[in-house]
Design brief:
Layout: E1 4-7, E2 10-12, E3 18-24, E4 34-39, E5 46-51, E6 57-59, E7 67-72, E8 77-82, E9 91-100, E10 105-108, E11 112-116
Parallel strand pairs: 2-11
Antiparallel strand pairs: 1-3, 3-8, 4-5, 4-9, 5-6, 7-8, 9-10, 9-11
Length: about 120
């Protein structure tokens, strides 16, 4: 069982910055593929960014150049640095551990709300 706990959400003004954190349990964090997803009201959940065990990253086109995903394997934590935020970034942000064959599972955090508004 892997637990994911997000933190760092809140209210931020357009153009501002916010950093989300996701702390994961387990002793194999360094090989986990980790992702951040978001779900805005009335919309489907979508991938924001993903980082592999080797730290290769991918981003949604809508956040490229503004958001940065990173990981600290010593702290079992993945981060999402959000810069130049826009009102359309308002959503609940979820941390995700990708499916792994060794346990046959993927895991989701409970989410943290980010609201971009003046």
């Amino acid at each position: 069982q892997v637990q994911l706990v997000e933190s760092g959400g809140g209210l931020v003004q357009p153009g501002g910055s916010l950093r989300l954190s996701c702390a994961a349990s387990g002793n194999m964090f360094s090989i986990y593929g980790m992702g951040w997803y978001r779900q805005a009201p009335g919309k489907q959940r979508e991938l924001v960014a993903r980082i592999g065990g080797g730290s290769k990253t991918i981003y949604a086109d809508s956040v490229k150049g503004r958001f940065t995903i990173s990981r600290d394997n010593a702290k079992n934590t993945v981060y999402l640095q959000m810069d130049s935020v826009k009102p359309e970034d308002t959503a609940v942000y979820y941390c995700h551990r990708e499916y792994m064959a060794y346990d046959g599972m993927d895991y989701w955090g409970k989410g943290t709300l980010v609201t971009v508004s003046s």
